[in-house]
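Handout, page 2. Input:
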Amino acid sequence: MSRTCRFFLVLLLALSTLPSWASSTYTVGPCVSGSFLTIMDALTYAPPPTVVKVCPGTYNEQIEITNPVTLEGISDGTSNQVIIAPQNFVENAVSLYSGTSLAVVLFVNGAAGPVNISNITVDGAGKGNLGIDTFVVGVLYQNTPGSVKDVIARNLQNNDQETDAGVGIWLEGGSSTPKITVEGCSIHDFDYAGVIADLPLSLTASQNNIYDPLPGPDPQFMGAKGFYLTDGLVTTTISENVVQGGQIGITEGLNLNGTISNNTVIDTQFGITASDDGFSVTGNKIIGSTVQAIQVFSAVNVIKSNTIVGAQIGMLFQCVANPNVQKNTFIDTVTALDFVPDGLLTTNSYFGVGTIRTGGC
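Output:
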């Protein structure tokens, strides 16, 4: 055998004997021999991982991700529940939008590429002695693209707050206008918002369940929101989600474009508030709204083919003459259309409605 062949043979044997952690896929937890003990150990190891797989169990650590990575919970035997539940965790971020102090369980901080999280539970029950102005957040993305899939966010409330201050998933864009997908998540036991999105980003949120909001210290003042879409989003698709309870099911701010379609909103005070001209509200089912099912703020956006059941007021026009409110169905509603401008024509279906239409504009 030549010297060259012997050299390459020795090199191949050396590479084959490198420990498993030299791979860009790392494992955390007891289900795989030789795994890291903590998630942060795996995330900060050199070279940085491209995939971190987490064994079932509870991890008492506050996580910060700064590099592109896939973080996923895996199965072992009869369990696949991966819980991140830091104890006495503290403020570790500031909202780019409002400057509010945040105590975050899983913080995705300005990664240069996608961060994809799946099959992880984040639990905020172990918060420490937080400041009165601090929000407790399950998952926070700041100026980072990626996806949040099959994530559970729970127990999110700052008990020292005078107003509601718990958020399941908070997404903030930035100069890169990241694309973020939130899919199949379960968010509950929060007191401010299930999902917040603000600053320039593109959001697709589908098939999520947001339910059992906490009453908060002053529910009359604030109250929980399922989806809270604030100013500056580039494109937004909110579809096939279920929101139950709280003050508002889905609410969006100004200068936004997108669709709110085929969602189910149950037992909220306000079902959907559609403020901006660029949003369409179609095919949603809104059940048991104690104040209004849909508020009409825009004179041009499409509000079509929605089904409203058991509402106090089906749609509040606030004297906005929107001719694109058409083909909606109102069932068992006290007042279907309220404060409708004189002469505005709408074609809807009504069943068991006390008052179909009021004027007063």
